[in-house]
């Protein structure tokens, strides 16, 4: 049986494999505007981009999703640009980001590292959003493997009211995410908000409710991804939610929250690619 160290090394190798393949497939030399997400997997995305060399990357501008990816871009010597400077009517060519869980329909849970609001804006600003992950993130339904709950970014003064509403909706023990060890109080996001983690029973897909035996609209605390997300985003005090859902990434050139492809580094050293047409 693999030791904890061996397992950790396998996960890192898997992330790196997926990142290099995703960049190879989706970063075309003619692209000029690239979104860079947050988290530990994106580190390998930036490594893969840097490996292309200045001949390719010097004409490109890289748009971060928060302080971590901003530092990553700068440390790699890539050109940093901000989504706030992207002119109206313009789009990023592609955006790469990680995920905490990916379901059969390419809905995502994101925000495990407290980044989701800027991530969603950058992903939805891209013509193509590409997700990069390791085998642990591949799951038939959201909430199957990721048990910590759906990350929800909230205005701090609204947190108690949001927690009440989440409990009414059937979330089991929703709570404000504490700060890192040594820091008193709640974690504070790049946007000055707090993060709530709201566990729900595994989220259904449209195909699960086709026969009418289940509505997925919150009865008995059972939700489809879309019904839950549509409800969560309307709670007063919620700034943004860590469900990336809605239109298929291939159906809309930009504005989609779902990826056009999700790359998973597998434990056997292969890379599994899921696209809307293969799910
Ligand atoms: O809040 C963090 C972001 O949503 C990350 O993209 C997500 O948590 C995945 O992170 P990692 O690549 O470290 O697993």
From TrEMBL:
One of its GO terms (cellular component) is cytoplasm. The keyword rRNA processing does not apply. GO terms for molecular function: ribose-5-phosphate isomerase activity. GO terms for biological process: D-ribose metabolic process; pentose-phosphate shunt, non-oxidative branch. Keywords: Isomerase. It holds the Pfam family Rib_5-P_isom_A. SUPFAM superfamilies: D-ribose-5-phosphate isomerase (RpiA), lid domain, NagB/RpiA/CoA transferase-like. Its EC number is 5.3.1.6. It catalyses: aldehydo-D-ribose 5-phosphate = D-ribulose 5-phosphate. The keyword Transit peptide does not apply. Pathway: Carbohydrate degradation; pentose phosphate pathway; D-ribose 5-phosphate from D-ribulose 5-phosphate (non-oxidative stage): step 1/1. NCBIfam families: rpiA. PANTHER family: RIBOSE-5-PHOSPHATE ISOMERASE (PTHR11934). Belongs to the ribose 5-phosphate isomerase family. This is Ribose-5-phosphate isomerase. It comes from Achaetomium macrosporum. The lineage of its organism: Eukaryota, Fungi, Dikarya, Ascomycota, Pezizomycotina.
């Amino acid at each position: 049986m693999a030791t904890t160290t061996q397992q950790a090394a396998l996960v890192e190798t898997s992330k790196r494999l997926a990142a290099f393949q995703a960049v190879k497939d989706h970063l075309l030399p003619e692209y000029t505007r690239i979104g860079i997400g947050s988290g530990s997997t994106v580190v390998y995305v930036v490594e893969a981009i840097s490996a292309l060399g200045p001949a390719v990357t010097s004409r490109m501008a890289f748009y971060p999703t928060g302080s971590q990816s901003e530092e990553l871009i700068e440390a790699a010597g890539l050109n940093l640009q901000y989504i706030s400077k992207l002119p109206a009517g313009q789009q990023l060519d592609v955006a790469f980001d990680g995920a905490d869980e990916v379901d059969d329909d390419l809905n995502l849970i994101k925000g495990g590292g407290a980044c989701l609001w800027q991530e969603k804006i950058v992903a939805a600003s891209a013509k193509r959003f590409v997700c990069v992950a390791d085998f642990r993130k591949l799951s038939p339904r959201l909430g199957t493997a990721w048990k910590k709950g759906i990350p929800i970014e909230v205005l701090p003064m609204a947190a108690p009211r949001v927690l009440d509403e989440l409990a009414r909706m059937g979330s089991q023990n929703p709570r404000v995410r504490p700060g890192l060890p040594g820091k008193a109080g709640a974690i504070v996001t790049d946007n000055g908000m707090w993060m709530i983690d709201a566990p729900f029973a595994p989220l259904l897909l449209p195909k699960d409710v086709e026969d009418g035996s289940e509505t997925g609209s919150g009865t008995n605390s059972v939700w489809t991804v879309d019904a839950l997300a549509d409800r969560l985003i309307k709670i007063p005090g919620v700034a943004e939610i860590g469900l990336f859902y809605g239109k298929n990434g291939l159906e809309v050139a930009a504005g989609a929250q779902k990826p056009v492809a999700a790359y998973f580094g597998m434990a056997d050293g292969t890379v599994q690619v899921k696209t809307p047409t293969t799910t």
